[in-house]
Specification:
Layout lengths: L6 E2 L5 E2 L2 H23 L5 H18 L9 H19 L9 H13 L1 H16 L2 H12 L4 H8 L3 H25 L1
Antiparallel strand pairs: 1-2
Helix pairs in contact: 1-2, 1-3, 2-3, 3-4, 5-8, 7-8
Length: 185
């Protein structure tokens, strides 16, 4: 498999090598946020997603010796998570909202397909929160509320061109922040 051989403990049981542990931690740390997002997209409540994520994390570690180091770790982890989510819905009859296996499978496929776009949306949300409140409010008025720029400018007592220029500066600043955040991850 490419891992160091397991070391035998005094009682004869296999002890995972340090290399395998380090590999797992490195791979898992690169995708744990995306994996949680994947799970959360399949269940209606955040706490349920957190519980499932904990079980999946343990399962991934326990099954890591079966993982092919040449394969995509995130795809493998999503496969394990998918079956844990299915199991969650089978076991949790207390929930009123139940997804059948076909819908759950469709959601899982769609979520896995859109992974990188979801990351960009997360980064956008983080970068928006970092903007000064006045800039964020202007963006929200125009883009989220769908108000015409002319109307926003009149309400603020500004020339329409001034508001256009301000929006352009804010968008460029937001874009630069997003680019930095995406390249850091």
């Amino acid at each position: 498999m490419g891992w160091n051989q397991d070391v035998m403990a005094a009682d004869g049981s296999a002890v995972s090598s340090r290399t395998e542990t380090e590999e797992f931690v490195a791979r898992f740390s690169r995708c744990h946020e995306r994996l949680f997002g994947y799970i959360y997209s399949l269940v209606p409540r955040e706490q349920d997603a957190r519980d499932i994520f904990q079980r999946v994390s343990l399962l991934l570690w326990r099954k890591y010796s079966d993982f092919d180091p040449e394969a995509d770790f995130f795809a493998w982890a999503c496969g394990v998570a998918y079956y844990e989510v299915r199991n969650f819905f089978r076991v949790s009859a207390r929930n009123r909202l139940q997804f059948n296996d076909e819908l759950l499978s469709t959601l899982a496929i769609e979520k896995a397909r859109r992974g990188p776009e979801d990351r960009r949306l997360e980064v956008l949300q983080e970068c928006l929160e970092e903007l000064p409140s006045a800039e964020r409010k202007l963006l929200m008025e125009v883009y989220a509320d769908g108000r015409p720029i002319r109307e926003v400018a009149e309400q603020r007592g500004k020339a329409t061109q001034t508001v256009y220029n301000r929006l352009n500066l804010i968008r460029r600043k937001l874009y630069a922040r997003m680019q930095r955040a995406l390249t850091e991850n």
